[in-house]
Structures are given as structure tokens and as C-alpha cells.
Design goal:
Elements (H helix, E strand, L loop, with lengths): L21 H15 L15 H11 L11 E6 L2 H22 L2 H7 L10 H4 L2 E8 L1 E3 L5 E3 L3 H18 L3 E2 L9 H6 L5 E10 L17 H4 L7
Antiparallel strand pairs: 1-2, 2-6, 3-4, 5-6
Helix pairs in contact: 2-6
């Protein structure tokens, strides 16, 4: 984070030591792996309310993510207002209709076929909350000077992963929704042109009849996603 006049490196003792014995580390890593395997992207939401404090805590977890030069180039807009959600849905569905009408191309649409998606996005109004994630392409100091942010996509991607994991830890479900383009969100939510919207996350409890695409359960085997070069 850029602070006027603060350009000196100062080392602090590691403030938190969470290291564990090897056997406990493995046990916790396996437990975390198994818990994340129970995470699912859901399109059918219950309208049961979710306390705002739960969402805020999850966003605070996301905002603790590492980032390029510690500039923290992200902003999260949390929307629970029904009228605002309806406006976001209307704008998103307009973009989606163009996408599914041919803007995506045949190959992309064929890839989406097993997922069962379409232009209608009722989850944007049924889910009790929407979280809009913005990437800050540049920042401004308190005295109005513009500065560059670094590794913005990587930093925002890490923070988004933290957020999705935190929502799952709270027992919530979400759906990673990326209508293209999403510039309508800047106007609707009053965000500056320095910020690029990258994702809409509807968040809530799953509906009693919630489903997931069968294809979503097909994960690549470990030998296709991992290469190991062991040490001595």
C-alpha cells in the first residue's frame, strides 16, 4: 500500500508463527483438501437471509491476501439491496443474450453445453448477496498522485481464491459469474475508471433442490496437474 513519504524498508519479526509438526501438517493439509473438495458452484439459491457480518468477515479474509508490492489492488462491492440486484441482473442478462446469440463463438458455446448455462440469470436476484470484485489498474495517493499497481490480475486472483474458500468455510455457496463486458458495474456502483470489474459472486445458502452439473465433478487426475522434482 502506497503511503506518502514512506519508502524505507523496515523488517519486523515474524508476527504469527503457525508452523506445526510434520504429521499434524499433513493431517491438516489433507483435511483442508477434503473440505475444499466439498465446495461446489451453485446456481440455485435459497432466499434465506445471510447476516451481513458473515460476508464482511469473508471479505476481510480475502483482503488479507498477498499482492504485488503490497498495493492490494482490489475493491469488493457488497450488494444486498433488491432494487440494485435487479438492475445488475438486467444489465448482466443483456450482455449474456448477446454472448449466447453468437458473440461467444461455436467452440466456446459447445464447451459450456455440459455446464447447462444460459442467458437467464435468476440467481442474481434470488441470492441474498452479490459481491462484485474490482481490479484496481492504478491507484491514487491521498494528495491526488496517480501510481502504478503491479501484478494486478495475479493479486486479484489470489484474493478471489481466498474469498471463495472463506465463503465455503462459512457454509455458504457462490457462483463465479463473469458476463463480458462488465463495465456497466462501474456506473451502477459508482466505481472509478481505474477499476475493472472482473467477477460477480452471488452468495447465499443453497436451495433445497440445488443441483450441480455432472461434468463439474470430473476433475483431472493428479498426474495431469502435478509435476514433482524431489529434493535430497
Amino acid at each position: 500500500m502506497v503511503l506518502n513519504g514512506e519508502v524505507t524498508y523496515r523488517a519486523l519479526p515474524l508476527p504469527d508463527r503457525v508452523q506445526k509438526p510434520d504429521d499434524q501438517a499433513l493431517a491438516e493439509a489433507l483435511a483442508f483438501r477434503d473440505d475444499l473438495r466439498r465446495r461446489h458452484s451453485v446456481r440455485q439459491f435459497s432466499d434465506r437471509p445471510v447476516p451481513q457480518a458473515v460476508l464482511v468477515a469473508c471479505i476481510q479474509a480475502a483482503a488479507s491476501a498477498p499482492s504485488g508490492a503490497n498495493h492490494q489492488p482490489w475493491h469488493f462491492a457488497l450488494v444486498g439491496d433488491p432494487a440494485m440486484k435487479a438492475r445488475i441482473r438486467a444489465a448482466a442478462e443483456e450482455e449474456e443474450r448477446a454472448f449466447y446469440a453468437g458473440g461467444a463463438g461455436d467452440e466456446w458455446l459447445a464447451a459450456l453445453e455440459p455446464i447447462g448455462t444460459g442467458a437467464d440469470k435468476p440467481h442474481l436476484t434470488v441470492a441474498p448477496w452479490l459481491i462484485m470484485i474490482f481490479a484496481q489498474r492504478w491507484g491514487m495517493t491521498a494528495d491526488g498522485r496517480r501510481f502504478k499497481n503491479y501484478y494486478v490480475p495475479e493479486s486479484v486472483g489470489i484474493a478471489t481464491g481466498f474469498l471463495i474458500a472463506a465463503l465455503h468455510r462459512a457454509g455458504l455457496v457462490c457462483l463465479e459469474h463473469t458476463p463480458n463486458p462488465m463495465s456497466f458495474l462501474n456506473g451502477l456502483l459508482g466505481r472509478p475508471p481505474s477499476e475493472k470489474p472482473v467477477m460477480i459472486l452471488p452468495v447465499g445458502w443453497p436451495a433445497a433442490d440445488a443441483t450441480v452439473p455432472e461434468a463439474a465433478k470430473r476433475k483431472k487426475p493428479l498426474d495431469q496437474v502435478l509435476s514433482v522434482f524431489p529434493g535430497p
